[in-house]
Design goal:
heterodimer; A: mainly alpha; 5 strands; B: mainly alpha; 16 helices; globular
Chain lengths: 394, 369
């Protein structure tokens, strides 16, 4: 470190502000003053208007009986339940479509993105047409389109059966399902626990390999922890895994898993629309990996799958993850379009509440709280993941 | 999994002399380069042929193109077999212009033409000068005069009778025209050294971007009357327009902020050294460079935003999508909504596709092929 000439200590000025500081202070006071004035004006108007309409502010209304029907929900719901429970059911419905939508859109988008780079001319052209068409048509229009198509499907009696046990009719998509109870959940829990344990074991194995350079196979642990133990638990408890096939009784179906037409249309629209954007992100991510990396991997004589997994993907992911986060957020926010076709997500429930009770501010505040929470959770998770895969500078 | 183009196993293929028919050569190289690729090609061809065949059968061969006025019997007969394009000539005036007085519909039509001309002129690099701002102000004033009337001998048409494509274009264009300056101010605010201004800007951007547009529109349609003094009421269209401007401002601010970050520090320092004031520094030195950096993402934001104007359907404003949805409420034509949606989708597609092509052409010179 080079020694500078000793500087005189800066003079402390407490009350004497420079010209720039004064200007800055003036601007801040002005802008904040305007903001406060506008908010105060709106607030006083709102208070006056609310008292004129005899609406009491506050969240007390959440305890009252909702009386709104929610046709399709994950949680048990009855119109006699409270507004609070209706909101919770709405949030569950939003999450149901958002989480499954994100998973499916990622899979479909990745496939289309890779197809776009395929050496097969026909495949890459078709993928390009898919992306271009879906990106340039408003999502709401696509949603209405899918919903109309759903409604135009034949009635339950004449339902299409693309595969045995699967029915597609104007009642939605009906799939065979395994009835889930505590014993099945216990087995599933063991498998999840096995995955977590395997993750730790694998980390330990890699650390060992880093120390002495000897590769240690991880697959026996995977087999044992994720498959053998849960199967053993399942056999020990005598859990039944019979698949329940839906059956047509009268005008409707009994058994199986039913995806209502509203939910199914919303899911298709969100997944196809978002997958077009994800495809472009995946494509640019893969293209961002320099050619030299492919050449080097080839020169080392690595197997294709190994090359993709260990060389190309880790580098591509760094480019892919940040824009992917905003696509996930978009999908979640776009799920609020559900209100247009009558799928009761949180925005739709809030809107009905607002119309029934007039509690506009509270309803909108709840929507904002829900979406901010979801957005922050997704950002938090994706930032954590991004930090994990980020380039370690040496 | 299919092969990826960029994998360099090309040298071997390149050394092989090109033999015979160039068409065959192209086919072999691009469609049948390996067994897997050959299988994919054949599979896709079969699917494509099936798809095209059934679409041609439905959309062209068995379709009903024209029927006598408001008689949908021919369409009903062909239902399930062929498309009913006859619904378009029957309803297109309503879809495009809503409930605007029928004899005056040349006015919204002319407005649409003016809008398109305005967009076209704005894409010309040679015209990116101060005059363009005046052109925009002039054109928007002219469009307002045409739509409202009440001047130059045009009869007055109140905005609750406006509908269709002009409303979509108005929402998008005015949203951008006001959202863009707002976005610049907020972006500058977010990079400001003054803590109060910075936190206000951050709060605004994060709040708006954190919630769906649908909830903002609900807020505009339901809460806005609560915010205003009693007896003061503004029109529904204007309320939606305000929500859209606020929405656009937040998203554009983030794009412009990216541009501001890309301007090298030396530029700021040079401007300071010249003794320019804050506003002159940004207007003359920083912003022109910042915006030039982010033109492609800006155009992408415009596209997203143009599509998002369709959400006003949810609060019942008659934009292009809402008129389309309303047009098929008519019992005679109710079953032919798919055809109407395809027609409207084609209109949206044309606008968005033109914009995305333009954005790509802007990117082209900077990215070497």
């Amino acid at each position: 470190m080079t020694a500078d000439h000793p500087r005189p200590p800066p003079r402390r000025r407490i009350f004497a502000l420079g010209r720039n500081e004064l200007k800055g202070l003036f601007w801040q006071v002005l802008v904040v003053g305007i903001a406060v004035a506008v908010i105060a004006f709106l607030w006083s108007n709102t208070v006056t208007n609310l008292s004129a309409r005899r609406i009491t502010t506050g969240f007390a209304f959440l305890g009252r009986e909702a009386g709104m029907p929610i046709a399709d929900s994950l949680l048990a719901y009855n119109p006699r339940d409270s507004y609070l429970w209706a909101f919770v059911v709405g949030v569950a419905n939003t999450l149901r479509v958002a989480v499954i939508g994100i998973v499916l859109a990622t899979i479909l988008g990745t496939l289309v993105g890779i197809s776009r780079l395929s050496a097969n001319w026909l495949l890459s052209r078709l993928a390009a047409v898919y992306v271009e068409t879906l990106r340039d048509i408003p999502l709401l229009l696509q949603l209405l389109f899918w919903y109309v198509l759903m409604q135009a499907l034949p009635a339950a009696r004449a339902a299409w059966r693309p595969v045995e046990g699967v029915f597609l009719s104007n009642r939605g998509l009906i799939l065979p399902a395994i009835p889930f109870g505590p014993p099945q959940l216990a087995v599933l829990g063991t498998a999840v626990l096995g995955c977590a344990l395997f993750y730790l074991v694998r980390r330990w194995l890699v650390a060992q390999q880093m120390r002495d350079g000897k590769p240690r196979p991880a697959w026996p642990f995977a087999l044992g922890l994720i498959i053998v133990v849960p199967v053993a638990v399942s056999l020990a408890l005598g859990v039944s895994w019979t698949i329940e096939r839906p059956q047509l009784r009268g005008f409707n179906f009994v058994g199986g898993l039913t995806l209502a037409p509203e939910y199914f249309a919303l899911l298709i629209a969100l997944v196809t629309y978002t997958s077009a954007f994800i495809a472009e992100i995946v494509r640019s991510g893969i293209q961002s990996v320099p050619r030299g990396q492919w050449d080097a991997a080839n020169a080392l004589g690595l197997r294709r799958s190994f090359m993709l997994r260990q060389i190309i993907l880790p580098q591509a992911l760094r480019v892919i993850v940040p824009p992917m986060t905003s696509q996930y957020l978009n999908l979640t926010k776009n799920s609020s379009l559900a209100v247009a076709i009558g799928y009761q997500d949180v925005v739709s429930v809030a809107n009905t509440t607002l119309n029934q009770t007039g509690q506009a501010i509270e309803a909108i505040a709840l929507i904002m709280a829900v979406f901010l929470t979801i957005s922050l959770s997704i950002s938090f998770f994706m930032n954590w993941y991004n930090a994990r895969i980020a380039l370690v500078e040496r | 999994m299919t092969a990826i183009t960029d994998i360099p196993d090309a040298p071997r293929a390149a050394r092989r002399p090109q033999m015979g028919n160039p068409v065959l050569h192209w086919l072999r190289k691009n469609l049948f380069s390996s067994i897997a690729n050959g299988i994919i090609t054949v599979l896709l061809l079969v699917l494509l042929a099936k798809g095209i065949f059934s679409f041609v059968q439905w959309g062209i061969a068995n379709a009903v193109w024209l029927t006598p006025t408001s008689d949908s019997s021919a369409c009903r007969a062909a239902r399930g077999l062929g498309a009913c394009w006859a619904v378009i000539p029957e309803k297109y005036r309503f879809i495009l212009f809503g409930t605007y007085p029928f004899d005056e519909q040349w006015r919204p039509a002319l407005s649409v033409v003016l809008f398109i001309a305005l967009y076209y002129l704005s894409t010309r690099r040679a015209l990116w000068r101060r005059e363009l701002v005046y052109l925009w102000i002039g054109a928007l004033a002219l469009i307002s005069a045409l739509m409202w009337g009440g001047v130059l001998g045009l009869s007055f048409v109140s905005q609750d009778r406006w509908g269709g494509l002009p409303v979509t274009l108005i929402l998008a264009t005015f949203g951008l025209a006001f959202g863009f300056p707002l976005g610049i101010l907020v972006a500058l605010g977010r990079r400001s050294k003054l803590p109060a201004i910075r936190s206000l800007s951050v709060l605004y951007v994060e709040l708006i971007r954190g919630v769906p547009l649908v909830s903002l529109l609900f807020m505009a349609s339901v809460m806005f009357p609560l915010f205003m003094p009693a007896g003061f009421n503004i029109d529904k269209l204007l309320r939606a327009q305000i929500a859209i401007i606020l929405f656009a401002g937040a998203y554009l601010a983030e794009v412009i902020r990216g541009g501001l970050q890309a301007v090298p520090r030396g530029q700021y320092e040079a401007a300071d050294a010249l003794g320019l004031s804050y506003w002159r520094k940004h207007r003359l030195i920083v912003l022109p460079q910042a915006i030039r950096h982010v033109i492609p993402p800006l155009v992408n934001t415009f596209i997203a935003f143009f599509k998002d104007t369709s959400l006003v359907l949810i609060i019942g404003i008659f934009d292009l999508l809402t008129t389309a949805k309303t047009a098929i409420i008519d019992p005679a034509w109710q079953q032919f909504s798919v055809e109407v949606y395809i027609f409207v989708a084609a209109i949206y597609f044309l606008f968005c596709f033109a914009m995305s092509r333009y954005s790509r052409s802007l990117e082209a010179p900077t990215t070497p092929k």
